[in-house]
Q: What sequence folds into this?
């Protein structure tokens, strides 16, 4: 439907006393400005009625004339929102006619059936945009919200430009193909180009955790032969750097298009991008992009919740579904040209319960081709059940603590660290005599704070605790490392230390390793996947003499005397059985599966077993392979 037709249709649906002042396009959203907003909201479910009737989601705002000046509006809003909501900040965003309300209890700001929200917009003309405050201080959340407000004008322009492209007249799509740009038959630098006769969309844009070999560090963007400014959109499945670490580089090269992701992915991604720059610098490497590029990237993010259908080009609709891997991780469902083809890109998936998340979704409206991760796709990759893994982890930890040793658990700041924190927290709650400190280093605490902003993305049990101010991340057993690390290691008190990076490929975990490796009373416990070529993998396979780099970039030899253990089953990835169960339970049954994100033999093994079990075409493409889907 063209904008003019929409305008005519919407006019017929408005109650007397209200009228349509204009329609604007903001990225994938249709924004309707209404004169007489108080009368408009006197109708029952006015927004839903219009959306159903025009078969498009809309955003409704009061027109400029109906809006009170900010100081008057603020005074009024303060009388409307109950004090128990814990509102800490009110900020006006005139470009979007919005009032941003940061509150400890957003539910109270919304009110029963949205009553309070309605009262705010009816009496002030400003549209409330409600944001949950983290229960722990978070510099990232604060920074992102401040920069979004500051960049409102530029964002409005960017969204208008993007919207024009999405709603432009277009030809029918005649062909669909994918091109493997990274993360095929390997783990790292995930990137797929989805190309149709009209559109070019990137699915993930990651880096390799091991950057020592520049030929395999980054995806083959240039080999795709697509000028960067012709890419219509980038979709990010989740915040791990092997899926999004290369994205700011696109912006450094002049990309100005939209990035689609879930709200938690945006926040966690910003955290990890800023940290990546720091880690690169510390390791004596020149970062491939600057903080400025990261900020530009954040300003171009368009967030979508699970289940929201969004037009990202005139011919492609995107819907995110839960992937169960980390906070905000998403499976992308792409509906191309009225059903000419449907592509499902899993990103990383956990098809099994964890403490934080529900298992990955397997039901989609349609889905002919599935691009599926295979990290643990090999024949031998049967991981223990979660409860067994937790028991094993706690046994090693308690044995070490009782023997007066210290435990180092290298973790990804995002994902495994929060899972391990939850296990420790529950253990401490059940064992009243557990009086050991658990030190949390690096970005782990900040990542945990971001979790508390998005309780609805986690399992009910965790959600309930955060909503009732009993966040497990705030247990007194956890202590954020603010003092000298050497002091912690030298102290006679046994303790547990959680520190990134998870593969000992940089960050504080290496610093601890160097200080702790020499003492056989200490333990090093791996709880996540160790990438090929990483220090973690070398120690895990039994190397006792390993090379590490000091702060000045000099190579040192570290002798590993400490106990080295792996508590398998903690991974946010599915094991082989779970991958097979995921594929088997996919509804509808796909016709093609491409296995990616796994070492060569694992991708091949997984492809082989799936084609045998499901009797469909399944294979493990290589990087640079182009595959025609339609
Ligand atoms: Zn991941």
A:
């Amino acid at each position: 439907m063209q904008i003019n037709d929409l305008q005519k249709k919407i006019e017929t649906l408005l109650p007397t006393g209200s009228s349509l002042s204009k329609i604007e396009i903001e990225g994938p959203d249709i924004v309707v400005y209404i004169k007489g907003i108080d009368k408009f909201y006197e109708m029952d479910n006015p927004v839903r009625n219009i959306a159903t009737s025009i078969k498009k989601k809309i955003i409704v705002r009061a027109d400029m004339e109906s809006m009170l000046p900010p100081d008057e509006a603020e005074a009024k809003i303060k009388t409307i929102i109950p004090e128990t909501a814990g509102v800490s900040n009110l900020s006006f965003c005139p470009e979007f006619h919005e009032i941003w309300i940061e509150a400890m209890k957003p539910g109270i700001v919304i009110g029963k059936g949205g009553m309070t929200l309605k009262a705010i917009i009816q009496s002030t003309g400003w549209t409330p945009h409600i944001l949950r405050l983290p229960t722990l201080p978070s510099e990232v959340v604060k920074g992102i919200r401040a920069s979004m407000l500051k960049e409102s004008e530029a964002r409005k322009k960017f969204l208008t430009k993007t919207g024009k492209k999405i709603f432009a007249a277009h030809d029918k799509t005649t062909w669909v193909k994918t091109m493997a740009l990274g993360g095929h038959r390997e783990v790292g630098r995930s990137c797929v180009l989805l190309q149709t006769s009209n559109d070019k969309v990137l699915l993930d844009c990651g880096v390799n955790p091991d950057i020592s070999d520049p030929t395999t560090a980054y995806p083959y963007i240039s080999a795709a032969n697509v000028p960067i400014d012709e890419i219509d959109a980038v979709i990010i499945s989740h915040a791990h750097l092997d899926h999004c670490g290369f994205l700011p580089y696109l912006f450094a090269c002049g990309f100005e298009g939209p990035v689609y992701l879930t709200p938690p992915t945006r926040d966690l991604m910003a955290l990890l991008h800023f940290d990546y720059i720091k880690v690169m610098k510390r390791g004596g490497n020149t970062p491939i992009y600057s903080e400025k590029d990261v900020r530009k990237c954040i300003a171009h993010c368009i967030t979508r919740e699970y289940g929201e259908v969004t037009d990202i080009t005139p011919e492609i609709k995107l819907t995110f579904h839960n992937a169960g891997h980390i906070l905000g991780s998403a499976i992308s469902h792409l509906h191309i040209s009225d059903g000419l083809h449907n592509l499902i890109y899993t990103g990383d998936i956990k098809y099994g319960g964890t403490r934080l998340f529900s298992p990955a979704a397997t039901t989609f409206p349609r889905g002919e081709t599935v691009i599926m991760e295979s990290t643990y796709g090999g024949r031998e990759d049967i991981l223990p059940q979660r409860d067994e893994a937790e028991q094993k982890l706690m046994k090693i930890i308690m044995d070490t603590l009782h023997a007066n040793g210290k435990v180092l658990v290298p973790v990804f700041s995002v994902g495994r660290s929060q899972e391990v924190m939850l296990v420790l927290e529950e253990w401490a709650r059940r064992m009243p005599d557990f009086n050991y400190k658990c030190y949390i280093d690096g970005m782990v605490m900040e990542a945990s704070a971001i979790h508390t902003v998005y309780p609805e993305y986690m399992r009910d049990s965790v959600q309930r605790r955060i909503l009732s101010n009993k966040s497990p991340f705030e247990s007194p057993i956890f202590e954020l490392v603010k003092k000298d690390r050497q002091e912690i290691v030298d102290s006679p008190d046994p303790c547990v230390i959680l520190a990134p990076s998870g593969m000992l490929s940089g960050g504080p975990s290496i610093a601890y390793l160097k200080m702790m490796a020499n003492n056989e009373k200490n333990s090093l416990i791996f709880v996540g996947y160790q990438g090929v070529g990483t220090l973690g993998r070398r120690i895990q396979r039994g190397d006792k003499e390993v090379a590490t780099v000091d702060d000045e970039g000099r190579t040192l030899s570290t002798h590993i005397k400490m106990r080295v253990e792996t508590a398998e089953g903690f991974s946010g990835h599915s094991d082989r059985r779970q991958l097979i169960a995921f594929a088997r339970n996919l509804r509808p049954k796909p016709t093609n599966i491409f296995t990616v994100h796994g070492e060569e033999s694992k991708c091949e093994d997984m492809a082989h077993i799936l084609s045998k079990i499901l009797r469909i075409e399944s294979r493990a493409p290589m990087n640079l392979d182009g595959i025609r889907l339609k």
Remarks:
- The first strand starts at residue 19 and ends at 26.
- The radius of gyration is 25 Å.
- The chain is about 35% helix and 20% strand.
